[in-house]
Amino acid sequence: MRPSSFDYHRAESLGHALELLARFGEDGRPVAGGQSLVPMMNLRLARPAHLVDINALPLDRIEFDDGIMRIGALVRHERYFSEPRIKAHFPAFLDAVHWIGHPTIRRHGSIGGSISHADPTAELPAVALLYDAAIVATSQAGERRIAAADFFQSAYVTALEPGEMVTSVEFAIPPAASAGSFIELGERRGDFATASIGVSITFERGTITKAAIVCCGADLVPVRARSIEAFLPGQPLNAPEATEAGRRFAAEVDPSGDHIAGAAYKKGLIGELTRRAIVTACHRALGN
């Protein structure tokens, strides 16, 4: 299929982009890599009357400052592979990027596009929730920081208002004694995930002291496994109750079945992926 007709505008600066988005309101959308928006337009699930090309904007930096990692909206997915501080501080983030689509998607897709698109199976929205990121939304009225827990409201629905665009995503750098993992399963490698689990833990003297767990595939938005996060602290790294954690989480979630997998299968899959992700994170914490 082909998209409905639209007007193309190339923004020369952030101010220019914001002026255009303010003028067009709900009829305007920013576009960079187009890996999420363009397929939706081709299927006519999205019909913006105006596209604002933001590729010329200086939003392609990864900055570390005062305990914060700030990722510009135009940073492409493949960039993370060459950033050693992401590997050191955000292992679940780096795992998740490996699961994103195919090389072409990782080469062109941007974090701003993925976050704004809010696909319920996408990896980067899950990572943002896992690490309690703040989404920086900018308009002509200024900036506002939106907690990831408040940003994703439903499938493809976010807290962004007309005239706003994501300009960066901010992550607090975890403590040195931390580890994590991210794992997913789809029908084929590179397909949309049937379910995925991300885990981040901190530890001390061989024991988990804090945990965060995020799941995609259980709801229309990524969800945190709050009860399992409360269950894991105090567990030893060398023998965590990962199977029990997975069993408990699977019992709590209520996913909907679809043409790929039934609800019962998804529940079992979420439990198993939870177990595997916890075990992997603990092995990494131990240096294995």
Structural features, described:
This protein is 33% helix and 27% strand. The chain is built from eleven helices and 14 strands. It folds into three domains: 47 residues, Uridine Diphospho-n-acetylenolpyruvylglucosamine Reductase, domain 2 (2-Layer Sandwich); 111 residues, Uridine Diphospho-n-acetylenolpyruvylglucosamine Reductase, domain 3, CATH 3.30.465.10; 108 residues, CO dehydrogenase flavoprotein, C-terminal domain (Enolase-like, domain 1, 2-Layer Sandwich). The protein starts with 6 loop residues before the first strand and ends with a helix. The longest helix has 23 residues. By secondary structure, it is of the alpha+beta class. The mean pLDDT is 95. Strand 13 and strand 14 form a beta hairpin. The protein has a five-stranded antiparallel sheet. Strands 11-12-13-14 form a four-stranded antiparallel sheet, sandwiched between helices.
